[in-house]
Task: inverse folding
């Protein structure tokens, strides 16, 4: 084997060992599913603020208006997640995280993590039962 082949083989082995050394939750993480949702005021839901799941699989959404409690729910494909916030009560200061059903954000949706969630700097990990 050439020196270059040995280096490539060593790099591959090191990458495999690094992946195996990660905790199980890290190995089962996946990107968030924010692209699945379209947010706005839902006419069919009495003009409450919400999102439509446009993906072909269920997602789970966590919604947190500033100064309020988080609301979360499973949302089937092509169905609406209503926050219950009417157009007259909407203040426009909120964050949300979206993961495939069975997963949750690796960063909790809380006021302390506002900027992380707002900037989509989270991944989805298997839900702890």
Result:
């Amino acid at each position: 084997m050439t020196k270059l082949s040995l280096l490539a083989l060593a790099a591959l082995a090191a990458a495999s060992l690094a992946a195996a050394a990660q905790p199980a939750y890290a190995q089962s993480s996946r990107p968030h599913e924010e692209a699945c949702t379209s947010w706005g005021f839902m006419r069919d839901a009495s003009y409450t603020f919400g999102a439509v799941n446009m993906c072909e699989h269920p997602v789970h959404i966590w919604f947190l208006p500033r100064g309020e409690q988080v609301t979360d729910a499973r949302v089937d494909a092509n169905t609406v997640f209503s926050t219950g916030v009417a157009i007259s009560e909407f203040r426009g200061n909120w964050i949300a995280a979206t993961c495939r059903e069975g997963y949750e954000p690796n960063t909790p949706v809380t006021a302390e993590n506002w900027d992380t969630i707002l900037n989509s700097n989270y991944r989805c990990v298997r839900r702890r039962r």
Helices lie at 3-21, 24-27, 114-118.
